[in-house]
Write a structure and sequence with these properties.
412 residues, two-stranded antiparallel sheet, mainly alpha
């Protein structure tokens, strides 16, 4: 058992992201309508409450490198799981948007590390070989969880109310906290093991494969390309989340029944799971830079089609393409950073870049629903997002050129 403990670690992380992703991906889509109708508040008010989660998640993700280094993944994440359990109880008993926002904000503090920054760090420590494939497989669990729990949570809401659904989610967090603390270890060295694939030879070069050390954190902070990448990651997430976070409300608005919209959301989560695995494996073969551009191109088409879609076939085409684009928001960042900047400052760089994702949720959710409350449709937001995403292809290409130039200077 100890010999294959790497895979047990990956399995527990997969279960963790299955549960968190299932709740995270359905929070806005499934709870917006029942909560706003029950409390008598506008959609933009609910979106603002959800934005508190994005802000809290941004803060915790930004400081995740220092926190995980100080306390370790196992203890830190187990404690945050229990904190999230309390947050969901607060959300279930809330009577107004303020209390709901408080609970969602506490939930965001935990999910920033548990969902965004923590799992890639553990996989980096435990796997030196097949890192992209394992990360893609584990990350795919968020889509699988989103699909499976979409149906479960929707059924609980319809049968017992949204309060009961929140309490059931709280119970899942408490169980996961115990399992994670019992099984996961921060590094293989703690158990007298080595990372999977350590010391294996590169078949082409016939020598141990080594990662480029790259820029130090101090050097990286002096590189304009790094700040452009922060901007690019933020805008990418805003564009993709403007659609993914509002898919069910948009479909209801263009004539889909609740059952049809939930079915599309569930299928989308399954497609997302498959695409994350595919993107991770593809990154191992052709590199994170090329995969990023491919995903971004899928996003441009998806947003454009959804902005002007008039029939079911166009909606489904957009959903398929969106599932291929959404790995940009989480999966491609830890795979792209070593390609661009090396592994020396990887932990800090990944933490900063991934913190843009929850901040983008805050921005996209609020702006998108403010537009909806004003004009009664999401379509203009998707059209603008498609144009921005198209421009981002050029921005990423520029970043690649700038980094290539900086590498040459560093090696001189």
């Amino acid at each position: 058992m100890k010999k294959n403990y790497h895979w047990l670690i990956a399995a527990v992380l997969l279960l963790q992201l299955f549960m968190i992703g299932g709740i995270y991906n359905n929070l806005s889509n499934l709870f917006m309508l029942p909560v706003t109708e029950s409390m008598g508040i506008a959609r933009s008010s609910f979106a603002l409450a959800v934005s508190m989660k994005g802000l809290a998640s941004f803060i915790s993700t930004f400081f995740s490198g220092a926190l995980l280094h100080r306390f370790g993944y196992r203890k830190m994440v187990s404690l945050l799981m229990l904190t999230n359990c309390i947050a969901l109880v607060i959300m279930a008993t809330s009577k107004n948007a303020v209390t709901l926002g408080l609970g969602i904000g506490i939930l965001g503090l935990g999910d920033g590390i548990c969902l965004n920054a923590g799992p890639p760090r553990v996989i980096r420590h435990w796997f030196h070989k097949y890192q992209g494939m394992v990360l893609g497989c584990v990350s795919a669990a968020t889509g699988l969880g989103g699909s499976a729990l979409c149906l479960v949570i929707s059924g609980i809401i319809e049968g017992s109310g949204w309060q009961s659904a929140f309490l059931c989610c709280a119970a899942l967090y408490s169980v996961m906290a115990v399992l994670l603390f019992a099984v996961v270890r921060n590094r293989p060295e703690e158990m007298g093991l080595k990372p999977f694939g350590e010391g294996q030879y590169d078949q082409k070069k016939e020598k141990p494969a080594r990662k480029w050390s790259g820029f130090s954190w101090e050097q990286l902070l002096r590189r304009p390309a790094f700040y452009l990448l922060v901007l690019g990651c933020f805008l990418t997430c805003v564009c993709m989340y403007s659609l993914s976070q509002n898919l069910v409300p948009h479909l209801r608005g263009i004539g889909f029944s609740n059952a049809q919209a939930v079915s599309v959301q569930s299928t989308f989560m399954l497609l997302l799971a498959a695409s994350k695995f595919g993107v991770g494996a593809l990154s191992d073969r052709i590199g994170g830079k090329r995969v990023t551009l491919i995903c971004l191109a899928c996003g441009v088409i998806s947003l454009g089609v959804m902005a002007f879609s008039q029939n079911d076939y166009a909606v489904w085409a957009s959903v398929v393409l969106l599932s291929c684009a959404l790995p940009l928001t989480i999966l491609t960042v830890p795979l792209l950073v070593p390609d661009l900047f090396g592994c020396q400052a990887q932990t800090m760089a990944v933490g900063v870049l991934m913190s843009t994702s929850p901040l983008a949720v805050l921005t996209a959710s609020t702006l998108t629903n403010v537009v909806y409350d004003t004009i009664g449709t999401y379509r203009p937001v998707f059209a603008v997002a498609a144009l921005v995403a198209l421009g981002l292809i050029g921005l990423y290409s520029l970043i690649y050129l700038m980094v290539s130039r900086d590498k040459k200077k560093l090696c001189v």
